[in-house]
Amino acid sequence: MSDANDDWPGRRIDHAAFAAALAERRAALGEPEMQRNAGSNRTASKKTLLAAIKQTGKRW
Fold first, then answer.
1. Which residue has the higher pLDDT, 18 or 37?
2. How far is CA 37 from CA 33, 41, 42, 60, in A?
3. pTM of the prediction?
């Protein structure tokens, strides 16, 4: 937990601890393959962004 002194009233998450817990849960489930979003509701700007990413040889 963060000890930052500000006005945030919500819960604080230690990202390293969260990542470790998430990895542990995924391993316990046998590393399930997460379904990708079908993309049927994407905006034109999102489609353009994804096309640009694809041109670099990467996958979003």
1. 18
2. 13, 10, 10, 10
3. 0.43
